[in-house]
Amino acid sequence: MTESIKKVRASGPQIRAGRDLLRITQQQLADAADVDIKTVSAYERADHPAFDSTADKIQEALERRGIVFTNSDKPSVTLDRSRAIITT
Questions:
Q1: CB 26 within 8 A of CB 19
Q2: Structural domains of the chain in order of their starting residue, each with its CATH number
Q3: What pLDDT score does 6 carry?
Q4: Ramachandran category for residue 34: left, alpha or beta (phi over 0 → left; psi -120 to 50 → alpha)
């Protein structure tokens, strides 16, 4: 039996928390995600929703560095260095 797993969409505050765990700046995240720093800033503040493709780029840039997002009954952001493809 195949289990369907829905990808977690990180919220702006979760993106900020992930960035804080890695101790990287908005500019460093923007560079890693290949987006403008204004986009990262607006997404973190939840000023406006990001396009799915942009949100994916930002989230994936953090996940490649070991950030894990969960949105169960207790949303969380953790750093699991064993999952990091790119070390910071």
A1: yes
A2: 12-82 (1.10.260.40)
A3: 58
A4: left
User: Cα–Cα distances in Å, from 85 out to 57, 61, 67, 73, 82?
Assistant: 15, 10, 10, 28, 8
Residues of the chain with pLDDT under 50: 1-5
The torsion of the CA quartet 13, 22, 86, 4, rounded to 10 degrees, works out to: -30
CB-based burial, 58-88: b 16+ in 10 Å, e otherwise: bbebbbbbbbebeeeeeeebebeeeeeeeee
Report the amino acid identity of residue 15: I
| Alpha carbon distance 79, 65 (integer Å) | 8
| d(C-alpha 86, C-alpha 61), whole Å | 9
Position 2 scores a pLDDT of 43
Tokens 């969960």 found at: 70
